[in-house]
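User: Please predict structures.

Assistant: First:
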Amino acid sequence: MRFPVLALLLAAMPLSAATPPAGDSAGLVAFADAFDRAQLAKDGAALERMVADDLVFIDGSGKRLDKKAFIEGWTAPGDRFELIVLRDRTVVMLGPDAGVVGAETTLRGVSGGDAFVSHFRFADTFRRTGRRWQAAHIQVTRMP
């Protein structure tokens, strides 16, 4: 995807050295970190497994998108992403099998041959079915 669309598709990017909270949230945080790494590495196969088929993705413009659009936004040929730093990370457990992980970050990279910078806050909602966590809802808010 080209930069304007890609910038709106950016969600769940934190790769930080933050210590995960104790308790049930440790597994969720580990999954969220792996999810972030898969996005930045453009690992389409991992994203296929990590994203629920019924994903609801709300991009930075408020547009509702699906799993296919989310994965295409991260795996477009020629696009590259730099490592990111999380700020103000939050983890909210909604029960033993659901939780929301969010943060503020700035993503830099190249899309469609053009350099870009995108500053945003995101909230990724994950659910666990059996032993498998998946992203079920992603919300991105662009910031100045």
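Second:
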Amino acid sequence: MREVSFDAPIDQHWGEGLVAVADGETVQIDARFESVHEGILASGTALTRYTGECGRCLTPIEAPVEVEFQELFAYPGEEANDFEVQDDHVDLETLVRDAIVLSLPFQPVCRPDCPGLDPITGERLAASPEAGSRQNIDPRWAALAELASDPAEGADRSAPES
């Protein structure tokens, strides 16, 4: 059994969509390698940072991502394996990249209660709370809204004339 800790630079960005791990970012890896009958069992944690945009208000966000991994690197043989020992070495890049990319949020938000953007003006609702408080009336119902705005006037119209 051998335990190692090291930092590995990323040469291309990992992930697609609203957030990704940028190229040039560093991944901190704490790994443990154990010799087993079938090959080498690699387990550990990887820590890095992702950057991108909030899915609701489009502000830039940055957050840490930590994943755990465990995989058996099999000795080369007759059976085809996803991960194999090559010249007494194991390549953790694919394993760590897949674990990190799968743990990235699908709909990232800057904060859990982010109100997003105003659908009419496009302003950030968190920056101007009064933007969300105004009533947006569908133009098809505008005539009914005018009737309901002044109940006394509406009562006079419906009162029978004598």
